[in-house]
Amino acid sequence: VLAPHGRAPDAATGIKRVHPDAIAFTVQGDGDMLAIGGGPLLGALARGEKITIFMYNNAHYASTGGQMAPTTLTGQITPTTPSGRDPTLAGYPIHAAEMLAQFKTVAYSARGAVNTPANYQAVKRYIKTAFQKQIDNIGLSYVEIISACPVQWRLTPLQALKRVNEIIAEFPLGEFKNVDSLD
Length: 183
Prior knowledge:
By secondary structure, this protein is α/β, with parallel strands linked by helices. Helices cover about 40% and strands about 15% of the residues. The protein has helices at about 10-20, 30-35, 40-45, 85-90, 95-100, 115-135, 150-155, 155-170, and strands spanning about 25-30, 50-55, 105-115, 140-145, 175-180. Strands 1-2-4-3-5 form a five-stranded mixed sheet, sandwiched between helices. Helix 6 (about 115-135) links the parallel strand 3 (about 105-115) and strand 4 (about 140-145). Helix 1 (about 10-20) runs parallel beside helix 3 (about 40-45). About 40% of the residues are buried. The mean pLDDT is about 95.
């Protein structure tokens, strides 16, 4: 199912409520989920929807030209921040995995990257765990995946790998919440 920009949690909620045994998940970008999708995300969190959310973090709006997103790094140059992201004007990058881990309704929150074989394997484990939390009907599960976007970053692949490492320095990898019960 393709949902309007930012509304994927609402679509997944509808699917899950109509088909409680279905595995309902979203695949969203950082701008999609944390900017225009902030309201639907908070609604799903507040209601304790038993869905899984995957967010790709490439620190900008990749599908619309590379503009600043909620995860854009401080100082990062984008078409909308030609002098670099200034936190006094645009705020700081949003750390979604840590933020979601604070909600009582979240059973699992993790962040991985796909820049090395070891990190890729960790992401596979995180995805499996996230789906298992939904299958076990525990709570909302979330996996953030840091990935490159060399085209919109206007970088070579090697420069893009360096940028991914800069993103990881800002957004630490790992599991932030992993519970078997919300009690």
